[in-house]
Design brief:
Elements lengths: L20 H7 L1 H18 L4 H9 L18 H14 L1 H20 L4 H13 L3 E5 L14 E4 L3 E11 L5 E10 L6 E7 L5 E4 L13 E11 L3 E2 L11 H5 L5 H34 L13 H29 L3 H5 L1 H23 L10 H10 L7 H18 L1
Parallel strand pairs: 1-4, 2-4
Antiparallel strand pairs: 2-3, 3-7, 4-5, 5-8, 6-7
Helix pairs in contact: 2-3, 2-4, 4-5, 4-8, 4-9, 5-8, 8-9, 8-11, 8-12, 9-11, 11-12
Organism: Kitasatospora purpeofusca
Protein name: Acyl-CoA/acyl-ACP dehydrogenase
Keywords: Flavoprotein, Oxidoreductase
């Protein structure tokens, strides 16, 4: 018998608090990942840009996840970012890396406010209308670490005119904005970043990207021939020997802005590689459940040797995930020690992801290398993720030098 009085209605549970913008965006992740996975093979085969996939990421609110709250955005953290990118990497690694660079741009704006107010407002307006991809174009053919850019900015009395070639420009054919590093042609050259519209006159995308993996990422060369850039969209061009402008506050912080930017880059791209490896493991699990060789009466998954090998993959990926996600939370707290560890973490996570996919291919034999199955694509994508990783010897030499310095202090 009910204990509710006859003249009373049962209590209706009050709705919980509305999800935050970040929570709302994360809730749409599973659907987006499924959409990406459904088209990934087609875009990989034809090396076509995944416009529909990027649109799906945008519509879910994931492409602007790191827009700061003061600009009306969700204010996603690095921990949120690696969570998103690991999942997108499960669906289509090319979409994930293109998304990563746009998220990194918004995150850097949140930290440093480097873009002029009017320019960033224009980017956000475009982002409300549809996907507005952004990337920083630094790499140049034949360039070496530490060298000034070969791309030249010449002042014609009214605007800067940019001339040069940039390479490995992820998302090149679809970028709304490009942050191009260049040096001036002044007697004492200055180096800065110039904000260039993707459809600018004098800008051409040279379709050079024909890699083993990440084939849909459109990481082509961008050629600039006297591309006009207004003075207000030239960032960081301080007078030679002069004090830094907007970056001065960041440089005085406990963790310099450049180091935080590198930490975000390291962990964001690590997350994509681990996501690819998780998809490879998912496919392997299905294969081991379904594959029963003619000389066996049970699937391969029933054999201890295969279970042990799968356990090795699982252990590698658990370690990589704990490393990436754990460091991301610490970087969000601006812990200097965590920021300093993201370079080696990127190396270790990428190695673990690559080893996991290679082992999955080894366990499956010929089926794993067949174009009829996605495992060979996962292998190509995870191998190609190294394009976003600093050379092993540079990462390890820096880690070794830091260890020696610690030893001297103790």
């Amino acid at each position: 018998m009910s204990t509710v009085a006859a003249d009373q209605s049962p209590a209706v549970p009050s709705p919980g608090p509305a999800p935050s913008p970040v929570e709302a965006a994360l809730a749409g992740l599973p659907r987006v990942v499924d959409l990406l996975a459904a088209r990934a093979e087609e875009h990989d085969r034809d090396a076509t840009f995944p416009y529909q996939g990027i649109e799906a990421v945008h519509e879910a609110g994931l492409l602007t996840l790191t827009v700061d709250a003061r600009y009306g955005g969700p204010g996603g953290t690095l921990a949120d970012t690696v969570q998103v990118l690991a999942q997108l990497g499960r669906g289509d690694a090319s979409v994930a890396v293109v998304t990563a660079f746009t998220l990194l741009q918004h995150a850097e704006q949140a930290r440093t406010a480097g873009w002029p107010t009017a320019g960033y407002r224009r980017l956000l307006t475009e982002s409300r209308r549809g996907p507005a991809l952004v990337n920083t174009l630094r790499a140049e053919p034949g360039s070496r670490e530490g060298e000034p850019p070969a791309t030249v900015a010449r002042w014609d009395g009214e605007v800067w005119l940019l001339t040069g070639r940039k390479t490995y420009c992820t998302g090149a054919e679809a970028l709304a904005w490009m942050a191009v590093t260049a040096r001036t042609d002044e007697p004492v050259p200055r180096t800065g970043t110039f904000l260039v519209r993707g459809e600018s006159e004098g800008l051409e995308v040279d379709p050079t990207w024909d890699q083993l993996g990440l084939r849909a990422s459109a990481s082509h060369d961008v050629v600039l021939d006297e591309v006009r850039v207004p003075a207000e969209l030239a960032l960081g061009l301080n007078p030679p020997g002069g004090a830094a402008g907007k970056g001065s506050a960041a440089s005085a912080a406990a963790v310099p802005a450049a180091e935080l930017a590198r930490a975000w880059h390291d962990l964001a791209l690590s997350a994509v590689a681990v996501g690819v490896a998780r998809s490879a493991q998912d496919w392997l699990v299905r294969f081991l459940h379904q594959r029963t060789p003619a000389n066996l009466t049970e699937p391969l998954g029933s054999l201890p040797r295969y279970r042990s090998a799968l356990g090795e993959i699982e252990a590698q990926l658990i370690g990589a995930e704990e490393l990436v996600h754990g460091l991301a939370a610490r970087v969000d707290r601006a812990e200097p020690e965590a920021v300093a560890r993201t370079g080696p973490a990127h190396l270790l996570a990428t190695r673990a992801a690559t080893a996991a996919v290679q082992q999955a291919v080894s366990l499956t034999g010929n089926p794993g290398l067949s174009r009829r199955h996605p495992l060979e694509r996962y292998l190509r994508d995870v191998l190609s993720s190294r394009v976003h990783l600093a050379p092993d010897e540079a990462v390890l030499e820096a880690a070794g030098r830091a260890a020696l310095e610690r030893g001297e202090r103790h």
